[in-house]
Specification:
The structure is a homohexamer. By secondary structure, chain A is of the alpha+beta class. Chain A is built from 6 helices and 9 strands. Chain A has a single domain, classed as 2-Layer Sandwich (Ribosomal Protein S5, domain 2), CATH 3.30.230.
Amino acid sequence: MRPSGRAPDEMRTIEMTPGFSRHAEGSCLVKFGDTHVLVTASVEERVPPFLRGKGEGWVTAEYGMLPRATHTRGSREAAKGKQSGRTQEIQRLIGRSLRTIVDLKALGERQITIDCDVLQADGGTRTAAISGAWVALRIAIDKLMADGLLTADPIRAQVGAISCGVYEGTAVLDLDYPEDSSAETDANFVMTDKGGIVEVQGTAERDPFDEETLLRMLRLARIGCGKIYAAQAKATGR
Amino acid sequence: MRPSGRAPDEMRTIEMTPGFSRHAEGSCLVKFGDTHVLVTASVEERVPPFLRGKGEGWVTAEYGMLPRATHTRGSREAAKGKQSGRTQEIQRLIGRSLRTIVDLKALGERQITIDCDVLQADGGTRTAAISGAWVALRIAIDKLMADGLLTADPIRAQVGAISCGVYEGTAVLDLDYPEDSSAETDANFVMTDKGGIVEVQGTAERDPFDEETLLRMLRLARIGCGKIYAAQAKATGR
Amino acid sequence: MRPSGRAPDEMRTIEMTPGFSRHAEGSCLVKFGDTHVLVTASVEERVPPFLRGKGEGWVTAEYGMLPRATHTRGSREAAKGKQSGRTQEIQRLIGRSLRTIVDLKALGERQITIDCDVLQADGGTRTAAISGAWVALRIAIDKLMADGLLTADPIRAQVGAISCGVYEGTAVLDLDYPEDSSAETDANFVMTDKGGIVEVQGTAERDPFDEETLLRMLRLARIGCGKIYAAQAKATGR
Amino acid sequence: MRPSGRAPDEMRTIEMTPGFSRHAEGSCLVKFGDTHVLVTASVEERVPPFLRGKGEGWVTAEYGMLPRATHTRGSREAAKGKQSGRTQEIQRLIGRSLRTIVDLKALGERQITIDCDVLQADGGTRTAAISGAWVALRIAIDKLMADGLLTADPIRAQVGAISCGVYEGTAVLDLDYPEDSSAETDANFVMTDKGGIVEVQGTAERDPFDEETLLRMLRLARIGCGKIYAAQAKATGR
Amino acid sequence: MRPSGRAPDEMRTIEMTPGFSRHAEGSCLVKFGDTHVLVTASVEERVPPFLRGKGEGWVTAEYGMLPRATHTRGSREAAKGKQSGRTQEIQRLIGRSLRTIVDLKALGERQITIDCDVLQADGGTRTAAISGAWVALRIAIDKLMADGLLTADPIRAQVGAISCGVYEGTAVLDLDYPEDSSAETDANFVMTDKGGIVEVQGTAERDPFDEETLLRMLRLARIGCGKIYAAQAKATGR
Amino acid sequence: MRPSGRAPDEMRTIEMTPGFSRHAEGSCLVKFGDTHVLVTASVEERVPPFLRGKGEGWVTAEYGMLPRATHTRGSREAAKGKQSGRTQEIQRLIGRSLRTIVDLKALGERQITIDCDVLQADGGTRTAAISGAWVALRIAIDKLMADGLLTADPIRAQVGAISCGVYEGTAVLDLDYPEDSSAETDANFVMTDKGGIVEVQGTAERDPFDEETLLRMLRLARIGCGKIYAAQAKATGR
């Protein structure tokens, strides 16, 4: 029995509020239950040095968590003067996941920076962030197209992400914090609406797991991502 | 004529949503028009080293702005590896303002950390932060009292803050961003509901100002703070 | 009774030694009693990136305190690897104060950096720094004019700064360290010799203060600034 | 055809030189072809603060690459003043992988720090590091047991790691640099000699991959890990 | 012919003003011609962690240069966030030189920190700093003895330092900046009044030098140090 | 009697393995007994900003020590976020020593970066590093000449370095760690095969030393450097 009473293959309620932020070209407040992430997409008409003059664009991401997004207050990374290894790992994952579904040549020499800031955390912040990031990115690119700055759509697919795990012996979908902190195994999947896998990261928290468990989690992830694509489509009016 | 069409002594709409954050002992989403600040109050049962064993508590504050809270994206302080001078100046002001109205002996050996994170900025983020911080602090202390950890109330007064300025020759209340960026003079006032001044910071942006201007801004600030105390009272059920 | 035996409206002895430093274009060793600050003005024929090509100059300031300028040794900011919030607040104030009285267009595309280094501290280091900075700046600009690099004088006024406070119930002028550390209220005023206010920063150290106290401190500040303008004039031969 | 001429399921030559370093409690120079990693295990009789007094030990890892381990010189992280996100991600992975096969209670209140320094890189540095780290750890723990400091063996299994990928449409084992830099898909597997999966990290470099590809890579990884366990056993005399 | 017109074995004028700083236990403003260094000695009744409980004291030094001590303004190390290699090298040398002439056991469990801040530079700042540091240290220790905190004098000798070099083919004493920046060879000597060498650091700036040159410079250094010991004795009344 | 049983003028065994590193233009694994340093020389076809357009090249060095190169593990400088004063001092010495024997004009506008990484330490790491650096540099420059990028040889001499010291009253050559940690006096000499001194750094560890001791150490250093030049010649086939 899951602490939340959810069925093994039951997601938390997904809410996506597009346009939450007034200034950003694209934005989305995404909620996976009590995990709330504010995502903005900022368009800049220039690319990082390594891409200058190559006729290609770039999509990158930064991630942060408000100090009291969690049960006990964490220290503020800006005050400590550096981002943790965890933060960097997550923001690299978000950027990589989005770049897989964007045609960077079609984007042209511009950069889109995705900021994912966790207002409240209850497990699964990176997967909520990726899922909401697609919405913010979609809106920002729709704006570029509406403004005539892009003629062809550089987005090739929807991308969503979800965590799965083995909790008390059962493979379950969309771990919340109580599950996450005691799961035996934990895996994050990033997938596209065409069925492809963009990233899989499975970790044994205590004992190693087997191939069967990996596949069971993958199947749950497909179920979860289906819900995410639907929520994304609704939020962006597609 | 103000860009917003407001009268010189007219505040923006104030909204204070108490309990916005699930985990913090006290929290408040405060909005002064399009300026939105999420404030949390975190209680820890220990004090900083310089106060250990003195039987006194401490109230401190940290301030941050999401990278895309503003018109153009600013760089993330955690990524740059340090907080700007402006950030430090603001968080020192917030902490100092709150300590003035708290009886630190009555608080006992515990620390309350106020985190003020600007989700969206349209001028006046520090004054909104201070005003909302009082609500978060009030709720956190009410909780300590309800839990029997405090018997006497350490809060001695309400504290609110507002900016005033001279815009196109007229003293106006509660500057928004378009006013703030072109005001001749700019002053922030922190005051209590007993009528006392906690902090005044007036700056000539171009030409020096005179005593009369200072007093005119102070009078407007009193009007604005009255509205803030009322909003605080409503948000905390007082 | 003030610890120093001074009358409430009595300044400490002001000494300003122009040309203290051999290499700088302008310099001044300023003493407000036992507070000694070495100020240099360095002229560079280029401006920061945000001003390039705009035909305007810039004046900026940096502030530091020698580790043993104070009663007990403080740690060296260069060794700690960062400037404190207090340091940044002060150097921002100094730069802002000087820019108010300089016509940056008339200065042309060059930058003047004011370095204020406290050799010995006894309260009021920031106000001594601003007051001495004007002398260093004046000398540096006189040199630019003598060298034919400037034809019109970009300095529009003298600027001075002084602290006031309420000590044992009485408003007093030019706080020294023993007063500063136990004052109920503390305010720094930056003013020009034309009578205008450039900056006012008043802080309640314990209980909030009232409008009358603010005005009383302002009046004392005018008295103190009068002495400062005279000392500046003498030091620069004006 | 692979650039190296290897068969798809053919590993590079593995060499493991135990005791390469004179001072460390355990050490190993591990070579996967032209990828050379020097691994040391350092035993300290104390644990990090979060474990003090809990009767448990800790295993952690740090990773670095000599500036000229690669084709073109990279900048030295110590000189830049921070470890890259990639470095942190890798050292977190190494530490996590080793902790999975160590009984931390049985280790007692001591910490073993694994340092993995890449002397020469040709792809697969993290997997070589993990595989060699097991040898260094095994030797260090054998020494603790020989010295009578441990009576029961806290190591529960061998752990090895290997990368697989899809190169020109074919799933291949143990990517070298030319393959790694142009692979369509890339996955690192950490597994134990009992057949369990400790970590799987698969990334689509260009297009998403499917479940079948993931399973094919997993099967290759099992083949590779078999060779690694044999080399580990030989190096440690087991 | 030396730029200054001095004879090859002629020092610049040495001035040592003891007690320059009001707060420090010992202080000295030392001038070697136009090189001016403010040195303070701060006594703390505790030692660094590695010495706790060993019944020994410690003497350490920190060095800094005001940004405009030099011909062109250098950047402030506190603002850059780190001390340069040159700064660290110099402060290590100063600390080491002083420790050689102090009986650390006789000093007892206390630390004396020497701060050397260059107000104006014209070559030879490190040697002036060491020479003045002895005066500040002497005064601080005299105070400890006068206060009855020390009964035996822990200072075993005077220590002085001077630079020599080969300028236009001639070995010269006490290089000023014009000589220093074009000398072929440059050596710093730290010596005691008993004739012993504490440190010698000779560097070929262009071509290697020979033993004879080294010895010629050493002889000049002895002459210079004689003058320094006399100035130290005078400044400390010995 | 030396701990190693060596005669006072006896070096440890020197081994120099050229071409140890596959990617670097020049490399050498240098061993002075149990001190092992991996040196690489990396050629870049650009110079640092201060040399651009001057038609001159640059040689610079970086130094590091693996955390467990020593008896007890030291912390990793990249993890601490800064290089120690010792590290900076050493790498400045290495760079300076090599620049003395290179004709930078003849090198042309390119930079050679020497990385010296200590794999195992037993005293004398800096002198081993300099001695091995010459080999790596020689190989890299031979490659530039073989590739036709240089026609004249910019290397003017061989450079070697060795430490000497006074151990139990006797001057000895090539200190190992047990000697180094208890030597009364310690000096590092950098010399060329033409007999010139490039750098001499002598330090009294306890009591000051005299001129005779300095000269005795210098004579030993000449013996040691002779062995080093021979080993360098052999390693580079000269």
